[in-house]
Amino acid sequence: MIAVDELKRRLEHSPAFVLDMSQVHANLRPLHHIRQASGCRILYSMKALPLAALLSDLSDKLDGFSVSSLFEARLASAVSGGRGSLHVTTPGLRADEFAELSALCSHIGFNSLSQYQRLHSSTDRYSAGLRVNPKLSFADDRRYDPCGPHSKLGVDVGLLGQALPEGIEGLHLHTVFGRTDFQPLQAVISKLKPFLSRQTGLKWLNLGGGYLYHRIADLTPVIEAVRYLQTHVAEQVYLEPGKALVGNAGYLLTSVLDRFDSDGETVLVLDSSVNHHPEIFEYQRRPQLLDEDPQGGHSAILAGSTCLAGDVFGRYRFAKIPTVGDRLLFADVGAYSLIKAQRFNGYALPAVYVCRGDRYEAIKRDGYADYARQWA
């Protein structure tokens, strides 16, 4: 784990997003084990964090990238030099971008039958697939459920009949988020067995992301599932972790700007904001604070620096309440934080650092020129 006190001491700028590459490499180990034991291929789902320094590091350690847009495809291709696989699936494929996107990507998982019929040509060089919806829900929060009622994500497998459309060489599945067991994968395979057994000549099957491999002790179920699928269904199976690689490798350093009492509760105003990690506000999450003492005798509300009333990280306990100038560190914010961050109220985005062992490299710092360019 990253040295908290050293990080606070050595970083020049606050707020700051820090990516610990040692933790990313640790998160790769179970995936490399799965790949070696099953023969599957691993893609990084870069929507979790598309930092170029990260992509460059991963490009020779994985089999490619999974993207959701033309810009992501451009960046992945530029960083990797065109090496490895590049898969894309998204509801938002644009006709005016498709020629370039299809030239960059090796695999396209069309999100709907109409999207496939409208954009695909038999002369295209990529391998065409369909994202399918097995109509099995595993998410407690429906906002995260790709298989819920009226889903926009994938073709209802019940509508595909006995055979896939001509030209389809692969299938893409994605049914979960943040899972620490493989029961959903086993349930999906069990439900789809009759459908999959009727398909012949499938070249690939992408099982999507959503599993936190580094938090699952027994990897046997996924290894056995991949072996079965590559023996009976498709020539090649792909996994595409995102949060599983970067979630617990990301930190947000922030400093206390003000401290005061509000209706009997201490409020600490930070130089960061939930706008630097919007899922806190969107999904009412309470991010992990490494400085918290759960048994501490004092509590304080940590609030962001913007004028949004709901810009609040949560209530935390301390042995001693921090004071103005103290630095605090949030953990497990590597995924879907920096990529969603914005400059509400004109506050700069966090500076970005990459930690490699005991070295902290400043990647970028947001400034007024970036703000002015956005609104020019």
Automatic annotation (TrEMBL):
<protein>
    <recommendedName>
        <fullName>Carboxynorspermidine/carboxyspermidine decarboxylase</fullName>
        <ecNumber>4.1.1.96</ecNumber>
    </recommendedName>
</protein>
<comment type="subunit">
    <text>Homodimer.</text>
</comment>
<keyword id="KW-0620">Polyamine biosynthesis</keyword>
<dbReference type="Pfam" id="PF00278">
    <property type="entry name" value="Orn_DAP_Arg_deC"/>
</dbReference>
<dbReference type="InterPro" id="IPR000183">
    <property type="entry name" value="Orn/DAP/Arg_de-COase"/>
</dbReference>
<dbReference type="InterPro" id="IPR005730">
    <property type="entry name" value="Nsp_de-COase"/>
</dbReference>
<dbReference type="InterPro" id="IPR009006">
    <property type="entry name" value="Ala_racemase/Decarboxylase_C"/>
</dbReference>
<keyword id="KW-0963">Cytoplasm</keyword>
<dbReference type="InterPro" id="IPR022643">
    <property type="entry name" value="De-COase2_C"/>
</dbReference>
<keyword id="KW-0210">Decarboxylase</keyword>
<comment type="similarity">
    <text>Belongs to the Orn/Lys/Arg decarboxylase class-II family. NspC subfamily.</text>
</comment>
<keyword id="KW-0663">Pyridoxal phosphate</keyword>
<dbReference type="InterPro" id="IPR029066">
    <property type="entry name" value="PLP-binding_barrel"/>
</dbReference>
<feature type="domain" description="Orn/DAP/Arg decarboxylase 2 C-terminal">
    <location>
        <begin position="137"/>
        <end position="334"/>
    </location>
</feature>
<comment type="function">
    <text>Catalyzes the decarboxylation of carboxynorspermidine and carboxyspermidine.</text>
</comment>
<keyword id="KW-0745">Spermidine biosynthesis</keyword>
<keyword id="KW-0456">Lyase</keyword>
